[in-house]
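ok new one. same drill as before - structure tokens go in, u give me an amino acid for every spot. 482 of them this time. try not to just spam alanines like last time pls lmao
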């Protein structure tokens, strides 16, 4: 089977080189044909997208854009649509994730970008969505308008399906031209979305592009980074640092590096009935896309003093992971990933013989691993369904372990009573956590969430102010002045 990826505006009849990416799963091979642009072609695409966006997107209202996106999302939510069928057929081959996990995960994710969620998205950042359409009065007097850049380049990474929609849709909502560079690990979905969008609204056919090049291609990136006004980059801190050296100083760079997330469970959630439910939700956060997202938990801090002990909770969690393995099998790991998983587990087992109270639970096949460790330190696991459970007395006990990792913290899933929730949220926020959510929802951020504590739209726009003095002064030159 072969599928062509990406999306390009019309730049004439010039031949575009292709690169074939090959994926195999369960004996089925998929060849993915990715467009590889020359410098000249990338310049043509950039100029075309800039020009078309200035003529089309900038003259649309924010509600017109939201309605178009909503219609495209409905197509992708429809399991009978051609694009949804392709997604459910090809994404398991490309990513290795279980078919049912792909199906459910896509539906859950896409629902965040329907009309009313997008309206909430805009209001969350701007307050008044009409700021994107025209000058609006400000409390301080005068008027302001939010204007997006002419061209945004998105450099996506990772293999979580559909994840590029967060930044691509943000770029469309601020009425900018958008070019997205897809990851070799999941090069399909962004191009499909662009194709659906153009089928729904042909007027947007030249306002965006989805391209590919091999990550780390320094010569190509140095050239391509001269075209956009803003570069939004995703990846490891090392790759982002390298990328930043190739971006002109006049180009705004918005990097999103690797983050680590964890859960905190109160003893109020640990009676004989609630503990099993909490463990079920925690296991779902672990197995959803095999901890490949920044918001996936690597550790669970479990409070002592409940009817169910932290050690017993670890065993509950192990049972739930085993159950999920039967329903949603973990993807097949690469040799590098398997080696890392075996090494991590071996190290945990060796230290369990000499260190503090420690229990290593898991299968001989290493499909999942739960490590219970008293006095355990904060540290990411090897991912791919590996997690630590660490007991604690009070939330203040875990804060010293978190503080050194302040710049790497992102989400904390919390199972606690209402008063504890707000008390703990303030303390966790003070050491760097930017998102507090419930156990079971860690891998599903709400529409309009502040990604890594930042704004989705405000980081992209610049505000134009008409001060009251200019408005007042203009009255001197009105035709109706005596």
């Amino acid at each position: 089977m072969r599928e062509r990826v990406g999306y390009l505006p019309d730049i004439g009849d010039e031949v575009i080189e292709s690169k074939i990416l090959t994926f195999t799963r369960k004996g089925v091979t998929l060849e993915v044909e990715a467009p590889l642009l020359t410098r000249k072609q990338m310049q043509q695409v950039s100029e075309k997208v800039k020009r078309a966006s200035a003529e089309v997107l900038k003259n649309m209202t924010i509600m017109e854009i939201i309605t178009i996106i909503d219609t495209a999302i409905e197509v992708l939510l429809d399991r009978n649509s051609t694009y949804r069928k392709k997604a459910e057929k090809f994404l398991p081959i490309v990513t290795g994730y279980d078919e049912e996990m792909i199906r459910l995960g896509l539906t859950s994710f896409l629902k965040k970008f329907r009309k009313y969620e997008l309206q909430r998205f805009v209001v969350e950042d701007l307050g008044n969505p009409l700021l994107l359409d025209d000058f609006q009065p400000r409390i301080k007097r005068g008027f302001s308008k939010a204007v997006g850049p002419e061209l945004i380049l998105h450099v996506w990474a990772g293999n979580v399906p559909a994840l590029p929609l967060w930044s691509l849709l943000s770029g469309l909502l601020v009425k900018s031209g958008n070019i997205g560079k897809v990851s070799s690990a999941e090069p399909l979905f962004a191009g499909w979305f662009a194709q659906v969008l153009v089928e729904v609204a042909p007027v947007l056919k030249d306002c965006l592009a989805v391209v590919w090049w091999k990550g780390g291609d320094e010569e190509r990136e140095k050239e391509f980074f001269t075209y956009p006004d803003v570069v939004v980059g995703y990846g490891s801190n090392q790759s982002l640092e390298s990328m930043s050296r190739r971006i002109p100083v006049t180009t705004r760079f918005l990097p999103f590096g690797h983050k680590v997330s964890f859960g905190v469970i109160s003893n109020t959630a640990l009676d004989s009935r609630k503990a099993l439910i909490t463990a079920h939700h925690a296991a779902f956060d672990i197995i959803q896309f095999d901890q490949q997202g920044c918001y996936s938990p690597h550790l669970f801090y479990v409070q002592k003093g409940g009817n169910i002990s932290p050690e017993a909770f670890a065993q509950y969690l192990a049972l739930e992971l085993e159950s999920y393995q039967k329903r949603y099998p973990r993807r097949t790991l690469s040799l590098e990933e398997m080696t890392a998983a075996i090494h991590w587990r071996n190290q945990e087992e060796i230290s369990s013989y000499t260190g503090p109270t420690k229990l290593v639970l898991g299968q001989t096949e290493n499909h999942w691993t739960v490590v219970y460790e008293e006095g355990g330190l904060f540290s990411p696991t090897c991912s791919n369904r590996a997690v630590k459970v660490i007991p604690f007395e009070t939330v203040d006990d875990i804060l010293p372990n978190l503080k050194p990792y302040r710049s790497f913290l992102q989400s904390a899933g919390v199972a606690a009573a209402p008063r504890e929730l707000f008390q703990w949220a303030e303390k966790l926020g003070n050491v760097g956590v930017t998102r507090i959510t419930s156990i079971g929802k860690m891998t599903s951020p709400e529409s309009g969430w502040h990604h890594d504590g930042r704004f989705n739209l405000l980081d992209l726009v610049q505000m134009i102010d008409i001060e009251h003095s200019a408005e007042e002064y203009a009255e001197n030159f009105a035709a109706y002045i005596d």
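Residues 335-354 form the longest helix (20 residues). and btw Residues 260-446 form a domain with the Aldehyde Dehydrogenase; Chain A, domain 2 fold (CATH 3.40.309.10).
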